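User: Please fill in residues for this 100-position structure.
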């Protein structure tokens, strides 16, 4: 959970998180920050924001796909339920599905 600290004037600071990075990742982050003239902390914030946005976009597209599949399945079930039942004359030789 993010922790909040108070500044010297008593006003609350933005939430803070603490992470442990492997050496290699920390070096890469430092290089990126230097290229963009940012602090390492600020660069990490920017990358986290971008990652969260991408994650949310991916999540939204997946949920839309799932809803589309559910809708198609429900439409198929409804179409089958609307078909009239026919009395069979003997054993069926082949199953036939009526299409719209």
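Assistant: Residues filled in for all 100 positions:
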């Amino acid at each position: 959970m993010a922790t909040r600290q108070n500044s010297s004037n008593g006003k609350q600071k933005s939430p803070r998180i603490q992470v442990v990075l492997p050496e290699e990742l920390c070096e890469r982050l430092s290089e990126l920050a230097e290229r963009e003239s940012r602090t390492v902390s600020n660069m990490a914030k920017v990358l986290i924001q971008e990652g969260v946005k991408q994650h949310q976009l991916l999540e939204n597209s997946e949920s839309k796909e799932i809803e589309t599949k559910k809708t198609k399945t429900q439409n198929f079930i409804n179409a089958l339920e609307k078909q009239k039942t026919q009395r069979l004359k003997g054993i069926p030789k082949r199953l036939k599905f009526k299409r719209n």
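For context: The mean pLDDT is 86.
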